[in-house]
User: What shape does this take?
Amino acid sequence: MKRDVRILLLGEPKVGKTSLIMSLVGEEFPGEVPLRAEEITIPADVTPEKVPTHIVDYSASEQAEEELREEISRANVVCVVYDVTQEDTIEKIQTKWIPIVNGGVEKGDKLPIILVGNKSDLRSGGAMESILPIMNQFSEIETCVECSAKNLKNISEMFYYAQKAVLHPTAPLYDPEGKQLRPMCVQALSRIFTICDQDNDGILSDLELNRFQRFCFGSPLAPQALEDVKAVVWKNASGGVRGHGLTLSGFLFLNMLFIQRGRHETTWTILRKFGYSDTLELTDDFLHPKLQVPVGCTTELNHLGHQFLQRLFEKFDEDRDSALSPAELKKLFGALPRMPWGEDVYMAVPTNQNGFITLHGFLCQWTLMAYLDVQRCLEYLGYLGYPFLSHQESQTTAVTVTRKKSIDLEKGQTQRTVFLCKVIGAHGTGKTSFLQAFLGCSRSKQKNDTGAFSHYTINTVQVNNQEKCLILCEVDVDRALKASDASCDVACLMYDVSNPSSFSYCASVYERYYRDSSIPCVLVASKADHPEQKQHHGLSPAEFCSKHRLPPPLPFSCPGQDAPSTTVYSNLAQAAMFPHLSGSDVSSISPWLKVSLGTAVLSFLGFSLYRALTRQK
Assistant: This one.
């Protein structure tokens, strides 16, 4: 919505433009009227819409044509004033003033016009019979007000309608020639309907309507008012009411009725509460709320984000099979301008036996998005109606920004629940199989008919009875490895036990990027079911690990029909959770101690001591 309004008054000489301005400001008819009033600014706190309003007078005797064009270009709305007692001033509306204001301007860029019939005190009945044909001819004419500067009749109303034409414009919402809502308005209202239809049954129940009413206008409708609204829709819109609820066609009809009756502000209030601008596009402030993520911090979905996404999943899981088919997923994202995920999502998250995304996989994908691209995550949460459905100001409440990793290292514990692991190894070591095995796929099931490929997989792992999210990222070795490729929470250096040249690549990567860093490393010996070959590197993998205080290489294989072991992934997550400890320290520390680091250990010991003393008594 615009932050201020600039109203320009035009019309033939002596129709009363200046008198109207002075009567508004002085609240009385002026004794002496100058040729032109100075520009007046009405403060926001005394206007109905709480927006500063600038009122500009025009005088042909004092201003040149060039000045007129400049004023028109700066105006938000034009009031064309005519004298209700002078027919020639009415004729000039269509022959002179409207062509000057909007002649040659594209339809969507035309300035809104308010027709103002002054001197109504001098004529009974007004001049509306002459005005109506003009209003029908020009769609940019918002309304017509007949008033009297002398009697102060409808003066405030005139400027209110001018304000309203700017702040709540008709043109983006309604086509007066076709007498229907414009396509972009229908699209926006349809998205709002889908968001508010929480049980996905195609109707807005009384409960859903009142929640919508409270969100947009601050209070619910009285029961009788709700029935009256549905009665009007039922009477005038076929199929607008079904059962005891309002259908999409009924919802659209209701908004069209508001507009036709001059209540544009009602529809605009709805649209703006759901994030729309004057051009009926979601605003950047709505889609991308500010979220500060300092260097060294990460972003994770929190319990509010998970709750919202779980409700969303359940809403569109129409067959209640705890998975979203491609059709259900497409319907879920139907209100979005584009699908947020490609076919590669099916290679990145857990799916069911039919290849459909489970609730677990759905939450994992959003966790991945929140970690890798939080702004994109916030954008799609906005499209899906997070603020409305979660009763929150913005999508940022769905995300937690973790503390800096340097603080975790200093304190020897972490609050993070999501960790990034880079999987690095030479060609042919089985990195892709390793990523797919993380999703529970045996080698025989690692087929992708779509041809899609994902560099990422994400799943949860248990680390000492705690559930953590681990993101695996396969690093592309076709190009030179950069420092950004090595950055992560834990590095998985993978070599092929059956290839004697494989380990040297891991050793060189460790020496260059990880030896002097705080990033923990875990070596994984892939294809452990194959005969082991002696590596060409000067040190054996075991000797290399011992020299650099790394845990011994972890064997990994993914043969046959059986799902691979998850132990290696838990060890990766464990190393990420305790980066301040060396590999040997992590391998020797007991599971009980790992869980009870920090304040938890004190609580546990205190409770145990209390129980022991109680038993002795």
About this structure: The chain is about 40% helix and 15% strand. Residues 587-617 have pLDDT under 50 and may be disordered.
